[in-house]
Structure formats: structure tokens, C-alpha cells
## 1
Amino acid sequence: MNKIDFNENDKIAILDIISYQPHDRHRACITLIEPSLDVEFESPTASLGNFRVLPCEIFDWVIKHSTMHAVSSLRAVNRRMRLLVDTSLPYKGIISNAPHVRATLERTGVAPHFTVEEVFWILTHGACRVCGDLGLYLWIPDLERCCYNCLREEPDLMPMSERDARAAYGLTARQMGQLPVMVSLPGNYKVSTTSRRKTSKFVSETRARQLGCAVHGGDDGLSKYIASSNTKAKAAYDKRLAKRSRPMSHDSHGRVNNTVDSIERYLVSVYLPYLDLESYTSHTGQACVGCRIAVSRARSLPYNDLTALIRRCGKVYTKEGLLNHFKECAAAQDLWHTKQVHRVVSDRVH
Ligand SMILES: [Zn+2]
Ligand SMILES: [Zn+2]
């Protein structure tokens, strides 16, 4: 492909033409509306009680190392406390840039498992844990960031039901309390807006397996349990697993994968912007119009080329990242050149 040159002045115009925000993908996961920090409330009248003697630095330190749930409870003490908590760093960073994430962790029951510091870390690190691209989704059971392409099909990002986890790894309800067990929320999910009314409980299979190892005395102990267990629940789980493991379909990496685009993936995820601490900019993700057009026009491409194109279409970028992508995206360059020609023609006419 020919190298394309563009100057500083062109950058805004290029972004204007080739970028869009994929709101349909963001809305494919949990969607909760949370009032922003700007919502006014009456001036506080109550005092902070014993907390008033704490210096700000100590108070911030306490908030940072507390769980999201503990901080929510503290906010509920009175308006003065809420004011103090909301201006504490890094909690302020979370509720200023992703207020819906606080509400989502609370509503899905996992807020007692994650600290403010852990959530802030995820907010400020933009790479997908699987592929390293910019990822704008929080995979809640592991508090990990992922991109849309990996969310759709990565085997590790398919959650396990609580029932399966208990049966597979011989865990009691009490032991499960050590894991972030997530309760899904009724709503519409996936780009195809599939409605889900009933709620279910999910965990990360990795965490459930680690807990199983700890409970049964390591890998060997867990393997012995798996080989010897003859409970009804385990037998029912084995049956479900055998049914799910039949090689019915493949993913874009060519792996046997029956869970591509399963609704459960979206039930445990929420849109999460990326806060770049260097520039203190919140990146909401720009996708490429050129790639979208290329997918819609793709007719007779070989399967591998088509899946690669679809994966590219599923990517999002920072503004700078999209400009870099522009340098190697023929479809986006075509769009830009077409606009340039139109502009010249229109200038001549006028
Ligand atoms: Zn990824
Ligand atoms: Zn493109």
C-alpha cells in the first residue's frame, strides 16, 4: 500500500470522516444509568463523627484500600460523608469517568470483593488482557479488561454458572462465598438486543478451579476429586459438559468453540472507558468507518480473510491509534480521498 501523508490540520478532518462510536456494542453488555457527580443535593448539616480527626491523606488511603461496597456504605452515612468520599482520590476518578461501573458492581453483588484501588487500576490500564488491543469492556467475575473481539469468543471469557462450579470442583455454598459470585441483571443484551428476564449466578472458571485446588489440597487432590466424585450434581454436570463439548462450531482462531457470542458473556460484562493518567483523558473508543464499509461489501472473500476483516472491524482505537490505523486501512483512505475529490469539485463549482 502507498504511504499516505497527512498534516496536523488534516487530522481532525480525517477523524471526522473515518471514525464512529460503536454504541450498539457498548449497549450489548449491562447498561445501568447512574447520576453523575454533578447532580446537586442539599448542603450537608450532619458532622463526620470520629472521622473528622483523620487527616485527608489517611482518609484517602483508607478509601483506596476499602472495597467498593464498604465505600458505598460509607457514602450512605450522611451528605457530608458522601461529599468527602466523592472527592477522595482515586475513588473520584472512578465515579467521574465510569459512574455506572460502581452501580454495576453493587447491583451484581460483587462490590464486596473488589477494592477501590483494583477498580481504579483497571480503569487506567486500557489493554485487553487476552490480545493486548485497546479493550473497552470490564469482564466482571475476574475484574479484567477485554476487547469486543475477545469478549465474543475467547474461551476464558465464557463465565461458569455457580451451579456448575459447585458441582465441577466440589465446592459448598459457604466456600463459594470466597469468590465474586455475580448475579446477572434482567435487560437487553448483545448487539441483536436479546432480552433476558431471569437472573442467574456466574463465576470465573479460573477462580473456581483455584478454589477447588485450595479446598482439595492442590492439583492432585482436585484431580482425585474429579475422578472419584459420584454425586448426583457431578453426574448432571458431566452430562451437561459432554453436551456442550460436542464440536458444533469454530471461532475465528479455528478453535472448536460452541460459545461464540453466547449471551452469558454479555451478562457478566459492562462497558468501561479507558482513563489515560498521563493526559487525564477518558478514551471512549473510536471504530473505523472504512473497515465497517469493507465488511458490508465483502462478498467472495476466503473464510480466513473474511474473519480477519470482521475482527478488524470489531476493534476500537484512541484518536491517535485510529490515525495510525488510517495509514494502513485502504478502505478508510478511499473514504478520505473521495471526500477530497468532492471538496475540490465543490470548490470549483462555487
Ligand atoms: Zn482482546
Ligand atoms: Zn479501517
Note: The chain is about 50% helix and 10% strand.
## 2
Amino acid sequence: MIQIWDLLSALLLARSAHAAATLASSFAGSTSTAVFPPPGVSVTSDASFFPDATQINVFGPTPTGDEAFAIATAPVSPDYANVFPLVEPATSDNKKFDVIHSWGKPLTSSNLGLTNSSAKIPDGCTLQQVHLLHRHGARYPTSGSAPASFAAALHAAASTGNLSASGPLAFLNTWTYKLGAEILTPFGRAQLFELGVGFRVKYGDLLKGFTDLPVWRTTSEERMVDSALHFAAGFFGVQEYQNDYQQLIEIEAQGFNSTLAPYDQCPNANNAIAATATNFTNQWASIYLADAQKRLAPHLKGFTLNATSLSAMQQLCAYETVALGYSAFCDLFTEEEWKGYEYSVDLSFWYNNGPGNPAVAAQGIGWVQELVSRLTQTPITEFASTVNGTIVGSNVTFPLSQPIFADATHDTVISAIVVAMNFTSLAATGPLPGTHIPTNRSYIVNQISPFGSNMVGQVLSCPASSLFFRFHHQHHHPNTHPLAPQ
Ligand SMILES: *[C@@H]1O[C@H](CO)[C@@H](O)[C@H](O)[C@H]1NC(C)=O
Ligand SMILES: *[C@@H]1O[C@H](CO)[C@@H](O)[C@H](O)[C@H]1NC(C)=O
Ligand SMILES: *[C@@H]1O[C@H](CO)[C@@H](O)[C@H](O)[C@H]1NC(C)=O
Ligand SMILES: *[C@@H]1O[C@H](CO)[C@@H](O)[C@H](O)[C@H]1NC(C)=O
Ligand SMILES: *[C@@H]1O[C@H](CO)[C@@H](O)[C@H](O)[C@H]1NC(C)=O
Ligand SMILES: *[C@@H]1O[C@H](CO)[C@@H](O)[C@H](O)[C@H]1NC(C)=O
Ligand SMILES: *[C@@H]1O[C@H](CO)[C@@H](O)[C@H](O)[C@H]1NC(C)=O
Ligand SMILES: *[C@@H]1O[C@H](CO)[C@@H](O)[C@H](O)[C@H]1NC(C)=O
Ligand SMILES: *[C@@H]1O[C@H](CO)[C@@H](O)[C@H](O)[C@H]1NC(C)=O
């Protein structure tokens, strides 16, 4: 018996000693990428072998059903909560805590604190028109952001031959950076396809009697074009969408006017005024990640884990999950630390892209002008914001009467628009402190602009008030923002 114990403890000791001593591979932290089809492969395809469906023309019976109108006919507004095929991450302590909902920017749900509100059409009212503003779907991190910097620093350390990770961090010894930048992930494509499907089911009935093709807008960035096309494919179906609407693509680049990318025309959008959040987020990171640093730093030799790298590791959890379906970084952190991470995103948005930044409302106002133009059917004639006069000056590119409007944009633009629209309920609890998470804060970014989030304005005709307009903002939990009557 004693011998077995000795043997066991010797084995255990050997194992932990071995773990502590394991040197990282020299490739740890290096970037790995793949392209399909591989570069240089040129397939000479003979189209005669693969005629398309219209050439085959044996479709079988194709009677269509009626348009759906779930927003008016269902007893409740449909909910969206699908994260398939992502593996739901756990924390290092509370295994039941919903990590995905603390990612802020990358993904999640929306409940703007308006109890019992619903996007459903009130009894007695009829819906005349909808105005959709949505974000693109889940993407890789933006260029040069924290996850890639962390990987590069780790790889530099591994290259010296002195990096060694153990315990919960042992996976870093052979971990490589598999994320690209900027473009949608496969899951991000699914989010927009599902948004399109959901929109057809809720609002398809509005198409009846409309004899033009809808003009829907996005910007020129790859993920923006992809998001718009996946939305349309979900809405119309992949065999039809290219014929059933017009896609307007606004140039997103410095110096070009576009209300969907207003920072490119606003001098204060990309300077020190725009970056006021750094002090707050740095202060908060040094507080909420202090325990994680104590707990995890001893498991990594040859690399200093501090608030910067730990925050990057939390971002890696989110980005690897939405890109690769699973991430080993997630359960390194506790429930408390995930709540801290969520709050760091709130701080960043409040001071960079929200009510705490004096340059933000000016970036949101251009889209609001376009909305008012559409609601009042009055062309825009004054150009002092980010509105593009060429685009709105034509009733071809900017029609004023459509049953369904759909604009694709970015998270920082949605957050600017809700400031310009003076949605004061979001700012009700005041400026966010860098020292602690206030109880009952009203500003939570994962309720404003997670991947695939969307705001829908409804023009309703109700007996009591003729026409009126209201907004609901939704991801998983739709909520209604009453707005001014039209
Ligand atoms: C919300 O609805 C529930 C159930 O109908 C009701 O008990 C509650 O009072 C409502 N809350 C508000 C603020 O209206
Ligand atoms: C690696 O560690 C050894 C021992 O601590 C040290 O002598 C050496 O300078 C280190 N090498 C690098 C490149 O940091
Ligand atoms: C307006 O938008 C169009 C299309 O994106 C672009 O070609 C044009 O340069 C823009 N005008 C300005 C002033 O930005
Ligand atoms: C941020 O902190 C730096 C250094 O402490 C300080 O100089 C700067 O004024 C602060 N900026 C803001 C916007 O608080
Ligand atoms: C963490 O360490 C890196 C690399 O030394 C450094 O650039 C960064 O400023 C540090 N972050 C903090 C919060 O000290
Ligand atoms: C572009 O926006 C600027 C304001 O930022 C405005 O002065 C200019 O007239 C706009 N140009 C067009 C063609 O819309
Ligand atoms: C669009 O503008 C053209 C030229 O300004 C005008 O002739 C036409 O009637 C307009 N169409 C609509 C639908 O307003
Ligand atoms: C924003 O809304 C608040 C509360 O409804 C109101 O007091 C304030 O005047 C509004 N601000 C603007 C700029 O309209
Ligand atoms: C929470 O904040 C809201 C404003 O957003 C306020 O109406 C409410 O009274 C607050 N509740 C508590 C418990 O402080």
C-alpha cells in the first residue's frame, strides 16, 4: 500500500515538476494562416459539366406561400438566442456563468431596462414601414489590436528559448495565433443570414404591393459587404437575392462622406479627443485583473503577465470562440473577472464612442438626418455633417419611400447614433467611474452594439395618434424605445 502511495506521489511530483519545466515550443505565439483554395491553384473549369440551376431548369413545383408577418401576428416578438456552433465557454470558478454575455463588443444580448416593452405591433395599430440599422456579424479582431500584439510578444519570448508555461497556461507552450483580421468569421456570416431570415419572417408582409426593388446600404469594407449580402441572402434566399434588391455600397475611407462610416469625415474622430477612454480603461484593468495576475503569472516563466496581456487573453477567449468555435483562454478567468471585462468595454465605449465623448453626437447626426429625411419624405438640402450629397441627392440611390429600409454599419456608429438621438435612458446613471462597477448602471455596451445587433424603427398607424414612430433595439431580447410621433 505504502509503495503504491509512494509511487503515486512520485508520479504526481514528476508530473508537476515536468509541467513546470516544460519549455514552450519555439513556434508558440506564432501566427498561422490558411487560404482556400491554396494560392497558385488555378482550376480550369469546364462550365458545361456544371450548368447552373436555371440551365438545368427542372425545379419541380414552386408555389410560394404568403408573406410572414410575425411581428404583428405572433403573440410575442420572436427571440433570437442561437450561438451554434460555438462551444459555450465556462469560467474558472462558476461553471454556469454565461461568459458570452460578458464579452461586450464581440457578441451578446440586449435589454435596455425598459420592463415589459415589446417590438410586437400593438393591437389596433398597423405597421407601415420599418427602418433597420444593423451591425456587421462576428469578425476577427481589427488590425493591430491586442490579441495579435499579445501573440507577437509571446512568440518573441518563445523564440529566445526561455518561455515556459505550466498548469492552466500549459496550452500556451504549443498555442499559435490562428486569427486573421477585420473580416467576418463563418459564425459572423451565419449571424447576418439569420438576421435576414428573421427579418423576412417578422416583416415580409410589408413587401406586398411594393413595385420597386428595395435599395439597401452598406459600406465598402469586406466585412460590411459580406454582412449585407448574407442579410439579403437570408431575407430573399440564395437563388433570388441578387435579383430582388439593389445593394448600395458607400466608400468607407478617409475623406469620403458616409453616414455609415462617419469617422472618416470627422477631424476629432481619430485623435486625442477620440481616445479619452484610455485612462479609465487602464485604471480599471489594473484593478479587476489584479487577482488574475497573482494567480496566473507564476505559471508563465519568461513572459510578464500584466493587465495588458491578461486583457488581451480575455479578448482572445471571445475572438477565438467566434472564429474557431472554442478557446482555451476562457476558463482561465473567474465570473468576477468576466464581469470586470464587460465593464472595461463599457468604459471604453462611454468615453470613446458614447455619451462621455464630446465628438460622438456629431458622428451620429448624419444618419439621423437621413432617417428624418426618409420619415418626412423631404430631401436633404443642407450638408454640414457626414451626409454624402451625391448619394442622398438621387432618388435612385436614396429613395425616400420604401416599405423596408436596411443600413449596415459598425458598433461605434450605432453607439454614436443613439447619442445623437438622445436616448437618455442609456446615460441615466451618469458617467462611469474607472474605480469600480457601479450598481445599476444604465450603459452596457453588449445591449447596444454586439456583433449582429440591430435597431429597428417602426412607423405605425394607430387610431389614437395617426402615425407614430418608435425604435426597438434588439439582439436576443427586443425592447422598444418610444420616440417622437411623426
Ligand atoms: C411586467 O409584466 C408583469 C407580468 O405581466 C407584471 O407583473 C409587471 O408588473 C410588469 N411590470 C411593469 C413595470 O409594467
Ligand atoms: C534565458 O535565460 C537564461 C537563464 O536565466 C539567461 O542566461 C539568458 O540570457 C536568457 N536568454 C534570453 C535570450 O533572454
Ligand atoms: C459620396 O459617395 C460616393 C460613393 O461612395 C463617392 O464616390 C463620393 O466620393 C462621395 N463624396 C464625398 C464628398 O465623399
Ligand atoms: C490621462 O492621464 C494622463 C497621465 O496621467 C494625463 O496627462 C491626461 O491628462 C489624462 N487624460 C484624461 C483625458 O484624463
Ligand atoms: C505590460 O507589459 C508590456 C510589455 O512590457 C508593456 O508594454 C505594457 O505597458 C504593460 N502594461 C501595464 C498595464 O503595465
Ligand atoms: C461632405 O461633408 C462635408 C462636411 O463634413 C460637407 O461640407 C460637404 O459638403 C459634403 N460633401 C458632399 C458631396 O456631401
Ligand atoms: C426621381 O427624380 C427624377 C428626377 O429628379 C424625377 O423625374 C422622378 O419623378 C423621381 N422619382 C420619384 C419616384 O420620386
Ligand atoms: C435629451 O433628452 C432630455 C430628456 O428627455 C432632454 O431634457 C434634453 O433637452 C434632450 N437633449 C437634446 C439635445 O435635445
Ligand atoms: C436604477 O437606475 C434607474 C435609471 O436608469 C432608476 O430609475 C432606478 O431608480 C435605479 N434603481 C436603483 C435601485 O438605484
Note: The radius of gyration is 25 Å.
